[in-house]
Amino acid sequence: MLELVATPDNPVPDGAVVHQLRSYDGRRLRAATFPARGAARGAVALFQGHNEFIEKYFETIEDLRRRDFDVVALDWRGQGGSERELDDLRKGHIDDFSQYQRDLDVFIEEALSPRPQPWFALAHSMGGAIMLDMARSRRPPFERMVLIAPMIDLANLPFPRGARWLADTLDMLGLGGQFIPFGGGRNYLELPFEGNKLTTDPIRFARNAAIIRAAPSLVISDPTIGWVNAAFRLMNRFAAPEYPRHIRTPILAFSAGLENVVSNPAIERFMQNLNNGALVPIPGAKHEILMERDELRDQFWRAFDAFIPGSGASQSS
Questions:
Q1: Total domains, the chain
Q2: Which of 117, 135, 244, 261 could share a disulfide with 287, CB 3.0–4.6 Å?
Q3: Range of the domain at 129
Q4: 3-state class (DSSP) for residue 234
């Protein structure tokens, strides 16, 4: 799906331009640019988490535009409006996170490079992990990075080593394209709000659920074995104390007090080893802080405005 999808509670921001990019291996990637409301004081590249899509962030995009930033957003390969890796369109598969890095090169060159500098990154969960991987392996083009619940490690794995061994073994046996064991069910937005791990806000949950009813092709289900194995390989590298010490980009990270998807202790350890990083906890929030209640989102935006040059408190939503 190339075009952006609007619903009554989630209109497409005015001035949006959709870009169809071609990745290094010919995959189609969907990106979109959204101009600032006034003279742009820079650009924010918005990177979503696993199983997300650009439309989910229209409210956040408007928040950034009100702060006079251009916004450039990307649907990662295998999800949203970008091309899937496998024939089953509900499978958000990938073989290795290095594929995301090569897709980033295309995104930066074709979608971000025309936007005014300075550039900043705003990334959630898996997107945060990809940004850290970029910052460790090379000098990123972003002056500063804001990471929301970055995927340093997963939460509440009862047998972490066993889970990693199982994913690697099944992947080596040629089952990487299969859903994780007991997976393959409905998308979380197709399930009831009660008991969800991602937000305490029923209104924003319902808004996002309406998007996928209007455009079911945007969603994927549980991850594949191959995706999980690739994620474990990256997260294993994060666990080395020297990994964050090689990162020079200033980073502001957020953790959710009611987190049940990624590991808050792993985030805390990683941030403590950064040369230039700060961690802001948001008590009472679940994993998707930008999809939370207003009083929780406001805490995020106050910290964002203090960290990002040119994002003054007078612009706060």
A1: 1
A2: 261
A3: 17-315
A4: helix
DSSP string, 59-117: HHHHHHHHTT-EEEEEPPTTSTTSPPSSSSTT----S-THHHHHHHHHHIIIIITTSPS
Beta bridge pairs of residue 121: 45, 145
- Alpha helical stretches, state H, 157-293: 160-170, 202-214, 225-238, 242-245, 264-272
Alpha-carbon dihedral sign for residues 253, 256, 261, 264: positive
Residues 6+ apart with CB under 8 A from 253: 128, 146, 147, 148, 150, 267, 271, 277, 278, 279, 280
- Residue 8 within any structural domain of the chain: no
Q: How far apart are CA 266 and CA 152, in angstroms?
A: 6
- Cα separation, 121 vs 47, whole angstroms: 7
Per-residue pLDDT tens listing for the chain (317 residues): 689 999 999 999 999 999 999 999 999 999 999 999 989 999 999 999 999 999 999 999 999 999 999 999 999 999 999 999 999 999 989 999 999 999 999 999 999 999 999 999 999 999 999 999 999 988 899 999 999 999 999 998 888 899 999 999 999 999 999 999 888 778 889 999 999 999 999 999 999 999 999 999 999 999 999 999 999 999 999 999 999 999 999 999 999 999 999 999 999 999 999 999 999 999 999 999 999 999 999 999 999 999 998 766 444 44
- H helices of 67-148, where? 98-107, 126-137
Question: What size, in residues, is the chain?
Answer: 317
**Which H or E element spans position 302?**
helix 294-307
Name the token pair of 300: 């995020």
Q: Confirm whether pTM is higher than 0.85.
A: yes
Is 2 domain-assigned?
A: no
Please report whether residue 12 resides in a domain. Answer: no
Inside any domain, residue 291 = yes
- Give the whole-angstrom CA distance, residue 212 versus residue 253: 29
The CATH number for 179's domain is 3.40.50.1820
3-state secondary structure of 251: strand
